[in-house]
């Protein structure tokens, strides 16, 4: 598991580490890692630009007066020593980090008011983790005037809200962000994650000094492999988990097909379908056992309810039957609308529940739209309804009722397509049926769904929900084979 730490937590860790090191050591470690990544980027071929290394490349630095600007200037000095043409622009009056500025000029770099209009690489060293959201006017003007081949943010994209991921005002949009010591919430949450670009982490020794509980958790392949329940030699279709799917209708039979497709791609050994679209499900998936009503489905280890099954009285009755089950439940789509209208149906519920709202569904459940602090928004709904919440978006967030927040690192815009959520919900229910906890099932489902979207999108500009469902088995295989986890249950 990776994590993202708040600005305050990083400051505390830095203070502890700096007390053990000679003055300036931490900044030099950051600058060295930043310069190494910049050199690597300058060696790459950029579309429409002549390939070149550091020597002769034009580098522009937008430098603020704080340590972030100092990191950028020290890194630029290292590039200047290797033959880069470096121009540094103070963006807050004439204030810059004095020692770093002197190192730059000694290396042959220049402090200027007006840099060249074109550069191979632009270093954003305007604001660090202590900066307020928004950019100073001079930085905005310079960003608009400079044509940069690659924009590199120093630790965080200047202008974003570091702790929430909100972007309430102007901010740098980076191609690459070089983070020092740890990830920050803005790298993985909210609109700020869209400004981060590709994320590179430079180890400066903070690890032992960071709080063991990050503000935001980020799953990796190894986590999913450790959570995954592999079938053993004594397992059968029942012991692997039976998942029930209450979805679809005569009007929306495709929702039933897509939800069962997602469920079949998961680790459960048996899928039962309950609903009026049974004919369509049988036709597409003969391995699924179909009934007309939830009461007829028999015992299951987890339920999915909601995609395309309507919001009338009959649907409400079916939802009540699902919630009467002692098994964990995923509630999606129409089920969320019904919960918003009839919140009392959840009050007696003791078994785990996972809700999967997008922003409009969240508003129906919570009474107001999610704030730009999406991690806090998901956690607030999870606490209010005592459940796990998967808040969909360009960077999906999962929150448990005890306040634990996870950010999904694998999402992509192509997943915003009709039926994609039905596949996700069915797959998640299969994970629950196999024995995963609600929070882990939500985190794993979002992660693998995003990875499947990437597989489906390879070589294509557009994908469908059916494409994502077909790619899920490959996503699972690649993820589980990516790491060796001897302790995984088999």
Describe the structure.
The protein has 490 residues and is an alpha/beta fold. It folds into two domains: 2-213, Rossmann fold (3-Layer(aba) Sandwich); 221-481, UDP-N-acetylmuramoyl-L-alanine:D-glutamate ligase. 39% of the residues lie in helices and 16% in strands. The protein has helices spanning 7-18, 25-43, 67-81, 98-106, 137-145, 185-188, 192-196, 221-227, 253-264, 278-284, 313-324, 334-341, 359-366, 374-385, 420-433, 438-457, 465-481, and strands at residues 2-4, 58-63, 85-90, 110-111, 118-125, 147-154, 176-180, 198-202, 216-218, 242-246, 270-274, 289-291, 302-305, 329-331, 353-355, 388-391, 397-399, 405-407. The strands form three sheets. Strands 12-11-10-13-14-15-16-17-18 form a nine-stranded mixed sheet, sandwiched between helices. It is elongated and about 80 Å long. It starts with a strand and ends in a 9-residue tail after the last helix. Mean pLDDT is 95; it is low at 485-490. Residues 220-479 form the YjeF C-terminal domain. Residues 10-212 form the YjeF N-terminal domain. Homotetramer. Its EC number is 4.2.1.136, 5.1.99.6. This is Bifunctional NAD(P)H-hydrate repair enzyme.
């Amino acid at each position: 598991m990776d994590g993202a730490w708040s600005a305050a937590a990083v400051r505390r860790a830095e203070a502890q580490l700096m007390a053990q090191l000679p003055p300036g050591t931490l900044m030099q470690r950051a600058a060295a890692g930043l310069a190494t990544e910049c050199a690597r980027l300058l060696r790459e071929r950029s579309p429409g630009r002549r390939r070149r290394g550091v020597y002769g490349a034009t580098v522009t630095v937008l430098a603020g007066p704080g340590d972030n600007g100092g990191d950028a200037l020290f890194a630029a000095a290292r590039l200047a020593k290797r033959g880069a043409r470096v121009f540094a622009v103070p963006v807050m009056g004439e204030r810059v980090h004095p020692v770093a500025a002197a190192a730059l000029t000694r290396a042959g770099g220049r402090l200027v008011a007006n840099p060249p209009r074109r550069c191979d690489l632009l270093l954003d060293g305007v604001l660090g983790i202590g900066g307020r959201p928004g950019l100073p006017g001079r930085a905005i003007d310079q960003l608009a005037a400079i044509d940069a081949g690659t924009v590199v943010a120093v630790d965080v994209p200047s202008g974003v809200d570091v702790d929430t991921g909100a972007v309430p005002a102007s901010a740098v949009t980076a191609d690459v962000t070089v983070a020092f010591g740890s990830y920050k919430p803005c790298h993985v949450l909210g609109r700020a994650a869209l400004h981060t670009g590709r994320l590179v982490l430079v180890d400066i020794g903070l690890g032992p000094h960071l709080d063991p509980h990050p503000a935001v958790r980020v799953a990796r392949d190894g986590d999913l492999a450790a959570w995954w329940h592999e079938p053993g030699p004594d397992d059968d279709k029942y012991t692997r988990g039976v998942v029930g799917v209450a979805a679809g209708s005569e009007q929306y039979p495709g929702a039933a097909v897509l939800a069962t497709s997602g469920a079949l791609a998961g680790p459960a050994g048996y899928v039962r379908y309950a609903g009026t679209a049974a004919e369509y499900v049988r036709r597409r998936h003969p391995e699924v056992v179909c009934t007309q009503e939830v009461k007829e489905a028999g015992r299951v280890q987890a339920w999915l309810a909601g995609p395309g099954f309507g919001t009338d009285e009959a649907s409400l009755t079916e939802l009540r039957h699902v919630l009467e089950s002692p098994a964990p439940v995923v509630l999606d789509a129409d089920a969320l609308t019904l919960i918003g209208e009839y919140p009392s149906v959840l009050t007696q519920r003791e078994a785990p529940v996972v809700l999967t709202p997008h922003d409009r569904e969240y508003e129906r459940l919570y009474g107001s739209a999610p704030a730009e602090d999406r991690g806090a928004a998901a956690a607030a709904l999870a606490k209010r309804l005592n459940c796990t919440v998967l808040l969909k978006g360009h960077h999906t967030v999962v929150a448990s009722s005890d306040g634990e927040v996870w950010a999904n690192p694998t999402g992509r815009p192509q997943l915003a397509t009709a039926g994609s959520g039905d596949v996700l919900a069915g797959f998640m229910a299969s994970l629950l049926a196999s024995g995963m906890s609600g929070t882990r099932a939500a985190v794993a489902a979002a992660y693998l769904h995003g990875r499947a979207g990437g597989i489906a999108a390879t070589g294509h500009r557009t994908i469908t929900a059916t494409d994502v469902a077909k790619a899920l088995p490959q996503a699972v295989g690649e993820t589980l084979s990516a790491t060796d986890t001897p302790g995984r249950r088999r």
